[in-house]
């Protein structure tokens, strides 16, 4: 495995063209997709023909330093989901999004906080990032708690995208959290 980043319990790596089934399985769980699609799975052909090619193209675009990274338990190697650290499509490279999507079996184990904390460290010490942001639905208290554990600051409320209006709680909109390099260094 070509490791991008390691934590105490996790190894993150770049996805490969052979990983479509991992993404399909992850996106087929209604609980995982609850705050993204209202629980509807991502069609396997979309994962194979759109999502995975976009992930791989991101590595090319950002030199492999930014993008979507597969997360595995170091003990046993089980795939637990993915983490994201990347700019907006045409955004500045020193302003990146932090996020994750984990299998239910990995929930409640501190993996989201552990992986996110390590990515913040890499972003601010190795990648020249100035600010990291994360967004979620207002009603997604689990993700909001993780952002607060990371000492990210609630920066703004955001409207619900039109393709997410069917999601339970969409009428409450979303939230955006941020942390700057200076804030991170003061922790």
Could you give a quick summary of the protein structure above?
With 187 residues, the chain is of the alpha+beta class.
Summarize the helices and strands and which ones pair or pack.
Layout: E1 3-6, E2 10-14, H1 20-27, H2 34-37, H3 44-61, E3 67-73, E4 79-86, E5 95-102, H4 111-125, E6 131-137, H5 141-149, E7 153-158, E8 174-180, H6 181-185
Parallel strand pairs: 5-6
Antiparallel strand pairs: 1-2, 2-3, 3-4, 4-5, 6-8, 7-8
Helix pairs in contact: 1-3
Organism: Streptomyces albospinus
Domain N-acetyltransferase: 10-182
Pfam families: Acetyltransf_3 (PF13302)
Provide a descriptive summary of the structure in words:
- The chain has 187 residues and is α+β, with helices and mostly antiparallel strands.
- The protein has helices at residues 20-27, 34-37, 44-61, 111-125, 141-149, 181-185, and strands at residues 3-6, 10-14, 67-73, 79-86, 95-102, 131-137, 153-158, 174-180.
- The protein has an eight-stranded mixed beta sheet with strand order 1-2-3-4-5-6-8-7, with helices on both faces.
- A hairpin with a 5-residue loop joins strand 3 and strand 4.
Q: What structural category characterises the helix and strand content?
A: alpha+beta
Fraction of residues in helices? 25-40%
Strand order of the largest sheet: 1-2-3-4-5-6-8-7
Can you tell me the residue ranges where pLDDT is under 50 for at least 5 consecutive residues? none
End-to-end Cα distance: 32 Å
The fraction of residues in strands falls at 25-35%
The run of helices and strands is: EEHHHEEEHEHEEH
- Would you report the number of β strands? 8
Choose one word for the global shape.
globular
What does the main sheet amount to? 8 strands, mixed
Radius of gyration: 16 Å
Please count the helical segments: 6
Report mean pLDDT, rounded to a whole number. 96
């Amino acid at each position: 495995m070509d490791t991008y980043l390691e934590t105490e319990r996790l190894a993150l790596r770049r996805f490969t063209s052979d990983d479509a089934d991992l993404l399909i399985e992850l996106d087929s769980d209604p609980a995982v997709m609850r705050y993204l699609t209202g629980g509807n799975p991502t069609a396997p052909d979309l994962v194979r023909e759109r999502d995975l090619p976009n992930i791989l193209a991101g590595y090319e675009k950002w030199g492999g330093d930014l993008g979507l990274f597969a997360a595995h338990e170091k003990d046993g190697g089980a795939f637990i989901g993915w983490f994201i650290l990347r700019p907006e499509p045409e955004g500045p490279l020193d302003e990146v999004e932090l996020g994750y999507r984990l299998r239910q079996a990995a929930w409640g184990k501190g993996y989201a906080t552990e992986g996110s904390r390590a990515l913040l460290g890499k972003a601010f010490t190795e990648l020249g990032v100035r600010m990291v942001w994360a967004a979620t639905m207002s009603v997604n208290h689990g993700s909001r708690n993780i952002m607060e554990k990371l000492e990210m600051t609630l920066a703004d409320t955001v409207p619900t995208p039109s393709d997410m209006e069917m999601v339970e709680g969409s009428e409450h909109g979303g939230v955006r959290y941020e942390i700057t390099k200076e804030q991170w260094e003061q922790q």
